[in-house]
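Subgroup meeting minutes
Present: P.N., E.W., G.H.
Scribe: E.W.

1. P.N. recapped why we're keeping a running log of single-chain structure predictions: easier to compare across weeks, and new members can see raw inputs and outputs side by side.
2. G.H. added today's entry (301 aa).
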Amino acid sequence: MFEYTAEQKIIEIGNTKIGGKPGINPTVLIGSIFYSGDKLVKNAKEGTIDVLNAEALLNALVDVSSTTGLPSMLDVVAESPKAITKYLRHLVDVTDMPLLVDGSGSEEVNLAGVQAAREGGFLDRVMLNSITPDTSMEALESFHKLGVKHAVGLTFSNAAMASATKRLDLAEVLLDKAAKAGIENVIIDTGVIDLLTLGLACKAQHMIKDKLGVPVGCGAHNAVNTWRGLVPKFGKDAKKPALVGSSLMPVTLGADFVLYGPIKHAPIVFPSVAMIDVALSGVLLETRTRVDRPHPRYRIA
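Output recorded in log:
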């Protein structure tokens, strides 16, 4: 069902595996926290948060991750160096999940986050989000000097907006840049901004796995966030199934990870993706390939 020319690479961050042939390793689900507009954030510049409600959401996330057997990672979004430092120091103490440092395009914020992880001794659990076509070699070398080993490569540009092939080209460029800078492990986000680009992103992820063999996925939830006609035409009740559907599409087409949006959506996304993972593992029965525990196959029945 999923046959690729290239050998499929599996990377490990913390205790989490990402990549490989679809159906073997569980899909890694990445949820966002402390993003712009997140009600958990009291002061975005200072990095003050609603600790009790954050704890409740994280506990629910840990519970559904354990119940389904799907690994979880956190995309930690921040607007300032001070905020990213405080967020990471808090999260590393209250969860075992790998943490994505996401300065929303700010190298200053990302550098501060990486520095905090280095000083705190948890760089092995940190992934830079993200390397883009505009990221300079100077910046990449700075991240490498701080000890960054893991990064998300975002294959998106104006030229690639309407082309899966150009996303593949960008993936090769990003992997080359990361290798030259000494960053060892890169997972590729094929870039979603709306419904049309979700289709292109899914096509690109197949092309990238086939040619390059690296782990791939996308921020599928962006397709729903920018769907202006969703609520006016179908009502608020349509948002949740649309969100689930957007996360399922890349998984059914071979994604190794999915960014599903705010962690508050974990209770509806995880069971649905777990169902697909079990179905995909069924394809392996013909070759008598067994999946390792923990895997949704052993958890959700």
